[in-house]
């Protein structure tokens, strides 16, 4: 049995980058919602922060849906 170490390292690298990117996007979404809440308490609307947070969550959902599509198809 031969293992293609280059392919294994490539899969590991891509998985690591995608995982860090997804966690980063989700973190930005949570931070945006927190920023929106603090802006609302001080009298502002926080619409830009809320919109950015929802965009981050939408990108996370799209990435997860694409991953599920790749597994199923």
UniProtKB/TrEMBL annotation:
Native species: Streptomyces argenteolus
Name under which the protein is recorded: Secreted protein
Residues passing through the membrane, by range: 6-30, 51-72
Keywords for this protein: Membrane, Transmembrane, Transmembrane helix
């Amino acid at each position: 049995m031969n293992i293609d170490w280059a392919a294994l390292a490539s899969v590991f690298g891509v998985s690591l980058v995608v995982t860090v990117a997804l966690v980063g996007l989700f973190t930005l979404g949570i931070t945006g919602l927190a920023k929106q809440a603090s802006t609302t308490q001080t009298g502002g609307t926080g619409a830009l922060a809320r919109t950015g947070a929802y965009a981050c969550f939408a990108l996370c959902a799209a990435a997860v849906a694409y991953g599920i599509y790749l597994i199923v198809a």
